[in-house]
Design a protein that fits this description.
The chain has 528 residues and is mostly beta strands. 12% of the residues lie in helices and 51% in strands.
Length: 528
Amino acid sequence: MRSVITCVLCLLAAAGGDFEKAVLAVSGAAEIEDLAEDEMERYRALAAHPLDLNAAGPGRLKACGLFSPFQIASLVEYRQETGDILSWSELSLVSGFSAGFTEALKEFVKLESTRAPGQPERSRIDQELLLRGALKLEEEAAPKYNCGLKYNLQWGERAVLNWATRTTYDDTKFKAGTISVAWYGRGWLSKIVAGDFSARFGQGLTSWTGFSLNGYTTAQAFRRNASGLSPSASYSSASKGLGAELRFGRWCISGAYSFSEKLPVANVTRVGETATFGLTATSRAVSFDWMISLAGLSLYGEAGWDGTPMALAGTVWIPKYGNKFAALAKFKDNKLTGACCADTKYLVASLQADLDYSKKRETYKLVVSSSPSFELDGWTVNPALRISARMKPQEAAPWRTDLRADLDAARGAWLSHLRFNCLWCKGFAWMGYLEEGFKNEKYAVYARGTVFFIDNWDDRIYVYERDAPGSFNVPALYGRGFAASLVAALKFSRRHALHARAGITCYPWMPAPKPSRFELKLQYTLRI
């Protein structure tokens, strides 16, 4: 029987990549489909250029958005007292860095110790140029093209330059794109940013540029880690302007002006051993935020005014390793949100209620998921089951129920992925796919086949698909048909890499004809 099970796993199992799992762990998202393109671009940039925890100053650590103010202060103080961190196990001993969080960080940070005690930091210049192009063909339609480029220059952890521009299938004209520059200091001048930047302070009531999760399906999603002022490496612009951050001991003062929005923003934060307080103000709103950390318990919140009152208060309780409980209440824009979550080793359950008084709408969400892991004949197996239910009493079809089952497995370089997803809303919809892959240090190949029957647009199912780094691909499946894709990556050397993706979608079982489409993407990366 065991040999039969093993054969089934070889053919039908599923395994998500380490990068995707790490993104979910640090972002708080329950699934990749919950994220947006600019957020995935931010994590891809971190993965391509890992942050050196031994060389990064407080301003650089904050800008990456991975850490809370307490974690940053704890890490900096630990380095000052003991020197460079030499191993991941040592990092997990730093206050605020759990073993699970440290494991997820491995995709985005590095630990380098190339200088002798008392010697100055030695920084080198690293450059990366990414060129990409895509072709899309549809029956009885003219071919469509798009292309793009990204350039990144990094001088150790002291300075960063980003430039990104692209065309789309609907807009083929090149534009200036997004350009950002940042310099990170070690003294009182902690950071200077210019060009396209993000401004994320407190829990986001007054200033939070770019994407933010709108659901609370995991305990990690309840509390935000503000990145302050940070340069943008995204194709899409957040704000265009100039900003700086000053540090005086435990005090941090930030100020910026967005020329694109004609909006000034300022923040003052004090980071303590157990309590952090901050004041954020723009020309449109003002708020006060706080975070109190006790043994296994975190209390946080923010209150302010933007013409109407707004407030947020929450808590995260960790009674023991592997178990988290979170609760939150938020009022903004005449909308009240309440949520709670139990996040344990084998089961995650969350409940959320949204009451919009302006539109007189109510929304209730329940999400329950389980994802155990075990070893079987050399395979690492991760079966997963996720059930979500959403109810909007004011709609004609108030219920939307989604059931998804995954089976993940990996053995050495071999990876597989099987998923079945069914949904009840206006009608019944379902999809399933099988993905097989092989990955080592020099190349990777993934092949996927998908079948879907979705008759109503309101019942569409979003599915994350592998793509080249820097491309975020989450198509909405709709209609009756099938799709197939092949993704390949080849790393010629440390400097040269090539990624390719070919995909086709056909609708042979539609009541009315629907054109098939084919897409081909090529991407070249040069590192200097």
